[in-house]
Amino acid sequence: MPALKLMTGMGKVSEPSVSRIRTELLDTYDITSLWWRRKERFTGDLSAKGDKMPDTYTAMKDIDPSTTVLLLGSGFSLGATNLKNASPPNGSGLRRHFIDLLGLPTDTSYDLQILTDEFAENDADLLYSELYDTFRISRLNSDQRNVLSEDWMRVYSTNYDDAVEVNQIANGNPPASYDVSQTLPNRIQKGAVVHLHGSIRAMTRDNIQESLVLGEASYVRQYLERSPWYGQFQADIRFSSKLLVIGYSVSDYHISALLLENPDIAKKTFFIQGPNPDEIFTRRTSGYGKALFIGVSGLAEGLKKLPRPDKLTDLNRLRSFRYLDPLRDKKSLKPPTANEVLDLLVFGSFNYSRCISTLPKQTYVISRAVDVAKVVSALETNRSILVDSRLGNGKTVFLHL
């Protein structure tokens, strides 16, 4: 492989030279080892690039949307257009918005719950109309559409707006969304959006307070921890390959209430922030994940150009299953001894290998094929099955079957 040497201290280079260098690099090295700034953001100073862009790409390259969970903060919706022909407010912008509408001093300490109650004091329909026009999205920008059009494992949103649903409809799909005011279903559709703090589409004039979580930090945390949707969110994160938190602010109490300082979760959590690096943000979120200052546009570009991991073909890599090869595992072929059968009947000492070696014959355990078929059928429409019996009646054996 030919070497490409860049002399230190060369300073600025001309645009043709930059193009030549880029072309030579791309021709010389595998595209998966490089990450370049978009042309309009390229400064021409090669030394200024440092290690930030390669490091960013290293963190992004293993992301597989089909096993990744998105958590959308209010910053994601910046650039979208609502019914007022403006962007929906982000972070504490909604609170400032109601402070302005009420004509209160900018340094008022009232929280969002009190402000919205006061706004609706004389006319409840006025609050409905204001929230509806503010959070119903009429148009998304191209970067938002590209990101949302990926086949994500699940999308969670702390936003009231319907940006995800608008994109689903634009792609010819019926809206697949859930709201915390709804009962947790037995099965959530893959790629659906879950509004953790309420959705503008579920809001009516009569249920504003029930459908939207308008409280501040302490109330949000208490509300979420009581909700079964919080448990579902934690389960999805635990089984996902990555968690992308887009548009989060350290003052965004809606997302702060969701984050847990868990080293295992932090390894696969990435905060997608605007293009301007923020050392304070990086330091404050270092225990929760890695900050990537690429913006929604950088994420959209990366998802479009970067390679995806190959589909799993080696079943030995399935972490939730134990590989068993009867031709190599001699113990699984060995029939149970009389003492092993006696230990099972008298002491309940169950040997999984002996069970495998005898099925479908019933020389070690009873196969219970009819009961197993009933349970498998029931699990297709139910989240869980309760197996109940007296002590020593074979519950553990049945679960292995």
Report on the structure:
With 401 residues, the protein is of the alpha/beta class. It folds into 3 domains: 1-50, no CATH class; 65-305; 321-400, no CATH class. It is 40% helix and 8% strand. The protein contains 20 helices and 9 strands. The protein has helices at 15-28, 46-49, 52-60, 93-102, 112-119, 124-135, 142-148, 163-170, 208-211, 217-226, 228-239, 253-256, 263-266, 279-285, 295-305, 330-333, 338-347, 352-358, 369-379, 395-400, and strands at 68-72, 81-82, 137-139, 154-157, 177-179, 193-195, 242-246, 269-273, 290-293. The longest helix is centred in the N-terminal third of the chain and has 14 residues, at 15-28. It is elongated. Mean pLDDT is 75; it is low at 1-54.
